[in-house]
Amino acid sequence: MEKKKWIVVAMAALGSGIFFSCQTKPKEWQLVWEENFEQQGSFDRSVWSKIPRGTADWNRHMSDFDSCYAMRDGHLVLRGLVNHSLPQDTSPVLTGGVYSKGKRLFSNGRIEIKARLHGARGAWPAFWLLPERGKWPKGGEIDIMERLNNDSIAYQTVHSYYTHVLGFKDNPKQGGIGRIDPNDYNVYAVELYPDSLSFYINREHTFTYPRIETDEKGQFPFNQSYYLLLDMQLGGSWVGKVYPEDLPVEMEIDWVRFYQK
Length: 261
Description:
Blueprint: H1 7-15, E1 30-35, E2 49-50, E3 69-71, E4 76-82, E5 93-95, E6 97-99, E7 110-117, E8 126-131, E9 141-146, E10 153-159, H2 161-165, E11 175-179, E12 185-193, E13 196-201, E14 204-210, E15 226-231, E16 249-260
Antiparallel strand pairs: 1-16, 2-6, 3-4, 4-5, 4-16, 6-15, 7-12, 7-16, 8-9, 8-15, 9-10, 10-11, 12-13, 13-14
């Protein structure tokens, strides 16, 4: 995930009291799929796989270690913890994450995720979408939620060749922020249309990213199928240092829902 260069502008807008009016789902939306995490012992392997480790900030500590995952009271629990148990693993911390890659795809609809995010210094939980086909950044990235440390706000952002390589971050604006209750469950949503993406937190509209007329390449690659990632991330150039004394940290995901018109 790219470091958000627009963070100062976004924070200024939030501080000045610029908010959008609360909106509810239109009646034409129909629930077509949901995941309530009611399985015993483990998540549904026909939908989700554990995210493998990589070399980017977001996945450099990913692990299939069982202690990073739990099913508890109808919730999927993903943890970030200090590595005390795997001496053969050189990563000082371990994180859990799942994705629907190769199993369930999403397009032309509304995705909602209800979750509680426990805070810690260096914690960086995220819900986001990547294309089943197409490499980053040309295929696009849709960040439904990113939260840093113990913040009472969450970030929602899009990335593409247009924003990342060509550097167009304000035409149109590539991200927004919204307030969350850091001690309770919040609902994060994105609506996927052929010509725009609209983002919400607790049914409050945060921003819309439209397709625009431009001669520049890659401005709106988002009219395609995406898989969903749910992951507990730790550390990196954006969120900063991890403090082991704050760990373990969890996020609890109550449900995921997908609507179409």
